Amino acid sequence: MRARRAKREQAAERSVGGERQVAAPAPEPIDAKTIIQGVVERIPSALEAVTAADGAAAGPSVGPSAGLNVAVRKAVLDEFRTRAQFVGRLAEIDALLWTTADHGGELVGGTLLDHLRHLRLLRITEPEESDRFVVTEGEGEKLEVLRPAYVDEVTGKVALAGHLRRVSARDSAEGGEA
């Protein structure tokens, strides 16, 4: 795990105009359950503050309704679902472009890479991280990437599994020709 994190931090170092820039370390992944729990825990105090500020509380204070908690839970889960769908589609588009000879060209490839960074979606092209890939074909001891894997750094989950092909050492030395 530490080796993988160190590798990601090294990949985050970018060379821009001859200068090396180090990207800020990524925060720990989050999940919907944690967000929901935090929001639901803060609802009673927020409602009390609003009620006290409005002076509308004529009788005893009533806590948040179960309906409000359900609405918050649904909204957070919907937001995560929408983001997951968008991240998945973007990963599919990038994977399709990555499989072309020029990786979609400099303009398209660069633009898509900027979108991936903005969404904190990590493209993995190293077969050493094989837990993010599915071996789809071939026999041999070496692995060749057919399609990169994508990991959502916000949630820590695999957004799109990559595809690997097994090749023999002799085939990979000959350029993959049998």
Written description of the protein model:
- The structure is a single chain.
- This protein has 178 residues and is of the alpha+beta class.
- It has 5 helices and 8 strands.
- The chain has a 3-stranded antiparallel β-sheet with strand order 3-6-7. A 3-stranded mixed β-sheet has the order 4-8-5. Strands 1-2 form a two-stranded antiparallel ribbon.
- About 7% of the residues have low confidence.
Furnish the topology, listing elements before pairings:
Blueprint: H1 2-12, E1 14-16, E2 19-21, H2 32-54, H3 66-98, H4 105-118, E3 121-124, E4 133-138, E5 142-147, E6 149-152, E7 157-160, E8 162-167, H5 169-173
Parallel strand pairs: 4-8
Antiparallel strand pairs: 1-2, 3-6, 5-8, 6-7
Helix pairs in contact: 2-3, 3-4
Mean pLDDT score: 75
Major beta-sheet overview:
3 strands, antiparallel
Number of strands: 8
Radius of gyration: 23 Å
Uncertain residue ranges: 11-22
Distance from N terminus to C terminus (CA atoms, Å) equals: 36 Å
Oligomer: single chain
Order of helices and strands: HEEHHHEEEEEEH
Structural class: alpha+beta
Query: Helical percent range?
Result: 40-55%
- Gross morphology: elongated
Q: Describe the strand arrangement of the main beta sheet, using strand numbers.
A: 3-6-7
What percent strand?
15-25%
Question: Given the structure, what is the number of helices?
Answer: 5
